[in-house]
Design brief:
about 230 residues, three-stranded antiparallel β-sheet, 7 helices
Length: about 230
């Protein structure tokens, strides 16, 4: 039985033909390539026999260093070097799973925010509302790193796939960030928001933030575990 691998999410399908659509990321069949398992034994390398009649050219002397170039590097050269360093940093973040690690903070704190605000709404506790606001600030601090690492993972690991599952994940992340920012600004403008006529809307925004974060987390787990 043949095996096929999705070139976007690396899902492996067993069958004579690739599936019409990847069950994980949703790309079409043309994104599947034949998958061959790597053999455990390494093929020994055969060194070519030395040619006794071949004369080796004398080693060339290294050129003298040009100090004028090293002392005054051009701005374009510095920019190219910075781009190389940024690419290496992006590869390291992808290699060490920076996005799944960074997303744990907001995904763990957002449910606490929603619960505290709902309890504050019902009980009228100002302390719970303040606690919810403080947790919202921590979510806001984590969001830039989560967004950056998520974008790098989508760009480098999933080749910027435009399938519905990625669009939903990106939209969910954007809704989460927007709800967080709106809630923080609203509280700063009106610390007594839960005593106002718009209290229900404030609570619903935070519930929507929780739902959007849950959808983004579910899709992220689906992409990681391929189920």
């Amino acid at each position: 039985m043949k095996k096929w691998q999705c070139s976007v999410c690396k899902y492996i399908h067993t069958g004579d033909e690739p599936p019409e659509k990847c069950p994980v990321c949703g790309v079409s069949a043309d994104k599947f390539v034949p998958f061959e398992e790597e053999s455990g034994a390494d093929t020994p390398k055969v060194e070519p026999a030395p040619d006794e009649n071949k004369t080796e050219a004398p080693p060339k002397e290294p050129p003298a260093p040009n100090h004028s170039k090293t002392q005054g590097a051009s701005p374009s050269g510095k920019w190219d070097r910075a781009v190389v360093y940024l690419e290496k940093a992006a590869d390291l973040m992808l290699e060490h799973h920076a996005h799944p690690m960074s997303v744990h903070l907001p995904n763990g704190v957002i449910p606490v925010v929603a619960i505290l605000i709902i309890l504050a709404w019902f009980s009228g506790s100002d302390m719970m509302l303040k606690a919810g606001f403080i947790n919202l600030v921590f979510v806001l601090i984590a969001l830039p790193l989560v967004g950056l690492t998520g974008f790098l993972e989508w760009k480098k690991k999933y080749n910027q796939a435009q399938t519905p599952i990625f669009k939903i994940k990106i939209l969910s992340a954007a809704v989460t960030a927007a709800c967080c920012i709106i809630s923080i600004i609203w509280y700063l403008v009106n610390p007594e928001v839960l005593d106002s006529s718009g209290a229900w809307l404030f609570v619903m925004i935070n519930v929507l933030m929780l739902a959007a974060a849950g959808v983004a987390g579910y899709i992220g787990g689906k992409l990681v575990f391929k189920d």
